[in-house]
Amino acid sequence: MSVILPVHNASCWLEECLQAILDQDFTGSMELSVFDDASTDDSRKVLEGWRERMEERGISVVISGHNASRPGGVGFAKNKAVTQSSGQYLCFQDADDIMLPQRIRLQYETALLHPNSLIGCRVQRLPEGSTERYARWINALTQDQLIAQAYTSHGPTVVMPTWFCSRKLFLKVGSFDEGGKGVPEDLLFFYQLLRQGGCPLRVDRCLLVYRYHERAATHSVTEETIWKLRVDFLQERVLSRWQNFTIWNAGKQGRKLYRSLSPTNQRKVKAFCDVDENKIQKSFYTYEESEQRPKPKVPILHYKEAKGPFIICVKLDMTGGVLEENIKSLQLKEGTDYYHFN
Known about the structure:
The protein is built from 13 helices and 14 strands. By secondary structure, the protein is an alpha/beta fold.
């Protein structure tokens, strides 16, 4: 079992991260595979300082890296760490996070039973209370929602710092995108996993302390980059199967989704629906930017009068439960009658 640890200027976190790896209660064969991606701090020195302790515990250590003028990026570093590792199973660990003692054992046991699955876990956010909605979403998703909510703006439903899988599955999906800064390599890999028939799965235990800070690589990815990838994946996986559908939200986000769709999928939009009487009273949304003549006009209906299936462009967990109750009142099944997009 190989722990895959990409490192870039992480010396302030490495002591806690490495101690937690040393404290694992997993009794099988373990390896730590580290790739130092052009760190300019003393990360490499800290790593080498832990080699003897790891090896005394029976954990073999592989450390490599480069000192080019700029880092290759998260995807590049992960690929290098995977390539030089030898375990049949891969446990991805970010240098700024802390794994709990049972993590590797419980995820390994789950991976043995589900060889075609990407295994995650619940997390504890540090500092406590940071990204509260996001943390709640990570921990509350049901197994069905791990697939159904793959189109939301939160990214992979099994979050990257918790990933555990067989090497065989990783090689089947393919390596991480190495586009560097600004590329969501985790989301691209996750989408490819789903295309390949892989299944996201979560151990329903908190097995990772997931740190939030301003230096995290995720902050380099723009919302527009994520938006385009999500729209394309939604069109590929969902809208291609539907003859027509309704966009739930006649406001800014719903209209933006409509404008982002291909002409073929725009024609499938039979209506917008909403709860806002001011929007409903307008009766139609006119797509002014369209080159079609006459310009497309899409009806705006109350959600109770609209017909599914629906793409829901209202943020989850932001309406005091009103959105969720409205959906429930229509007796709709997520992943069949509707998908969340926001």
